[in-house]
Design goal:
The complex is a heterodimer of chains A (68) and B (382).
Chain A lengths: L9 H11 L7 H16 L8 H13 L4
Chain B lengths: L18 H10 L2 E3 L2 H12 L7 E2 L2 H10 L14 E3 L1 H4 L7 E5 L5 E6 L2 E4 L2 H9 L7 H7 L4 E9 L14 H11 L4 E6 L5 H12 L3 E8 L9 H15 L5 E3 L2 E2 L6 H14 L4 E4 L14 H4 L10 E4 L3 E4 L4 E4 L10 E3 L2 H9 L11 H9 L7
Parallel strand pairs in B: 1-4, 8-9, 8-12, 9-10, 9-11, 12-13
Antiparallel strand pairs in B: 2-7, 3-7, 4-5, 5-7, 6-7, 14-15, 14-16
Helix pairs in contact in B: 5-6, 9-13
The chains are: A mainly alpha (68), B alpha/beta (382).
Chain lengths: 68, 382
Amino acid sequence: MSNKSVELPESLVNRVESRIKGSKFASVSDYVTFVLREKLAEEESPKTPFSEEEEKKIKDRLRALGYL
Amino acid sequence: MISPHGGKLVDRTVPFEKRDQTVHEAARLTQLEISQDLARDVENIAYGAFSPLEGFLCQGDYESVLHTKRLQNDQVWTIPILLDVSKEELNGVKEGDRVTLVDNTRLPFALLDIEQTYTYDRKELAEKVYGTTDHAHPGVARTFAMKDLLVGGKITLIDPLFDEFQRLRLKPVETRVLFNEKGWRTIVGFQTRNIPHIGHEYVQKTALTFVDGLFINPVIGKKKKGDFKDEVILDAYNALLANYYLKDRTVLAILRMAMRYAGPREAIFHAIIRKNFGCTHFVVGRDHAGVGSYYPPYAAQQIFEEFPDLQIVPLFFTAFFYCSKCESVVNEKICPHGAQYRIDFSGTKLRGKLSSGDAPPKELIRPEVAEVLLKHKDPFVE
């Protein structure tokens, strides 16, 4: 996977540098990558769509199998 | 409800109205025979258990998974799902072609659109996925027995394969509807390849105490010598659930898939699959998906720290045992008594008892489960 650079305020970088001392994060980049992945995973979560017809068919099968 | 991995539940099955037309098309195409294990991977891709995968990995994703434990699009993925073929099997088929996949019964069951064929390094694959190149490791042995080329591309399932346990098999879309219908918002997934002993029951019920529902999802498929046979595992679970579990809080359904025994990497893979089934939590015990002593006992728990974006929440359990002083199942975090009071849930001890026709002690196995086990003349994989 290739990498790209982003710009961050120096004060923020300083805070992250102090925060990660002695932690599992080897660099500011590691920390920012971790936090962004966590945030994006939260925000990119759409609902799973079921059509009414599809849901009815599934429920019928689940009843036939004794799950409902 | 938790989103499927990658945001969308994959469906690579042929719609009912197009089935006949697709069967005719499949009959005219070159056939590629694949093993039962690979055929089950095809089904899991088609039904969305392996979402976001839509087919076998192409080279970019293969290398990305090997080196970063992520697909090229940055989504977490730790076990490469690969289709290996020989040059002879390809028989003139090239990238861009569509072939029919047949299983060992020669029945066409799926289509594969070949995007890429590529070579790979078996040693590197074994080292990265299993952390070893020792051929005594079952996953490594399987890797070194793979054919020379890998084929990447999307699959389309025409018909499901025969399954003797069909009544216990649910697709991710079905479990999601089921959990929703039961009113469960939080569900803990429990992966197993073993018969249930009291220690498993303790873990499952402890986990269930904190969520709405328990999804017990035994892996049914190729296992190693000495593991319990599939029918034995399912009979044992049915006996346990009928006698000791609330029906409204527990669902038992199988997962058709071969074990890889890849320890930490496989723990993540197992969690992703359960996320696709709709689980919000996943139990990870000591030496999850391990074999022999290839992995440190809690490596399969530590690896979760690498993935803040996995979303499914791992529930970590330490080793547990029966303490005759506490008179209950406990673990090393809560029991103050010495080793002389401990009865370990040793698989070897259990196998020994069963092989000699004796019922294991009730501290280890529920009597109803022991009765089922003893009814099976030969309960182990040979």
